[in-house]
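Ops channel
N.P.: pipeline sanity check, posting one input/output pair.
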């Protein structure tokens, strides 16, 4: 009898232990499910992304606010293509998506570049006062504007040995130009500057005279509106070679090839290259060179990007 009682007791204990184990396992599973549901992987999958897509997005996005931002937008697998691009800037995401949906023929690389440089906006309809504290890296174009009273970095005359009379640029750029001139001279080329710093008033006169003779539409194609000209920075030169000073043929000259290969070593970049008109907003100008300093010129040269793209990604985006 006692033995039977003992066995029953063991059985009850056994049952209780078993129940506890089952409850424990189920509880852990529920808890784990609960925990998983708090993860962004789960939330992204619930939002419509495949598990694989969710994992890729998580590889790229590390910050919770970026993931929340993603969840607040409609599911769009094109985002996965965008984030693979080197110059992707998260704060531009909704503009990338909008531009891409309106321009189906544009490559992903171009969607990124166009939006980064603001070319998804119309020229002169999206003015941004430019950051004038950036010194040699100041950006001026059809979106970024200089104030009328902008004072360039210390300006000095370019010696008539290297330039037509009356040309002035910032001293640092001037020194760099002289070094470049000497190097070109050693290659048998005599560079000559025919245009450089222009203040607001001078640019206004240039633009207004074009506008008076050609009308605004044509004037806008060949001259910058005052406040929008890079020449007002004191960091740009229009440079030719003694034997070729024609805007029509300079691009075919030996001097132009030399500048393309060497100017970056002296801190100058080609500002309006051929094939990049849709990013710079300007027809190609083989003669217009901009001083940005050696370090930045090297990056722009190596990565084959425009200054506008450099500015968006390396300056604004990192600020
Ligand atoms: Zn120019």
């Amino acid at each position: 009898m006692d033995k039977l009682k003992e066995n029953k007791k063991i059985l009850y204990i056994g049952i209780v232990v078993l129940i506890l184990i089952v409850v424990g396992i189920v509880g852990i599973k529920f808890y784990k499910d609960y925990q998983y549901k708090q993860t962004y992987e789960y939330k992204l999958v619930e939002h419509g992304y495949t598990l694989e897509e969710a994992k890729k997005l998580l590889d790229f996005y590390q910050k919770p606010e970026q993931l929340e931002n993603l969840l607040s937008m409609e599911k769009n697998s094109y985002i996965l293509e965008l984030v693979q691009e080197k110059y992707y800037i998260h704060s531009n995401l909704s503009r990338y998506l909008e531009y891409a949906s309106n321009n189906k023929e544009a490559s992903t690389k171009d969607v990124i570049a166009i939006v980064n440089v603001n070319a998804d906006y119309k020229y002169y309809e999206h003015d941004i006062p430019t950051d004038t504290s950036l010194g040699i890296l100041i950006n001026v174009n059809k979106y970024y504007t200089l104030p009328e009273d902008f004072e360039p970095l210390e300006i000095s005359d370019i010696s008539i040995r290297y330039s037509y009379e009356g040309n002035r640029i910032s001293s640092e750029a001037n020194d760099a130009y002289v070094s470049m001139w000497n190097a070109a001279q050693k290659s048998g080329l005599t560079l000559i500057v025919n245009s450089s710093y222009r203040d607001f008033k001078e640019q206004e006169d240039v633009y207004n005279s074009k506008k008076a003779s050609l009308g605004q539409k044509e004037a806008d194609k060949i001259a910058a509106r005052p406040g929008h000209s890079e020449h007002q920075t004191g960091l740009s030169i229009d440079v030719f070679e003694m034997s070729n000073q024609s805007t029509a043929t300079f691009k075919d000259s030996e001097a132009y090839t030399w500048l393309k290969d060497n100017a970056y070593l002296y801190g100058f970049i080609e500002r309006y290259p051929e094939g990049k008109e849709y990013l710079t907003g300007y027809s190609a100008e083989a003669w217009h060179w901009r001083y940005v300093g050696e370090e930045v010129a090297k990056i722009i040269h190596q990565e084959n990007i425009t200054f506008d793209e450099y500015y968006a990604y390396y300056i604004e985006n990192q600020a």
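N.P.: looks fine end to end. The radius of gyration is 31 Å.
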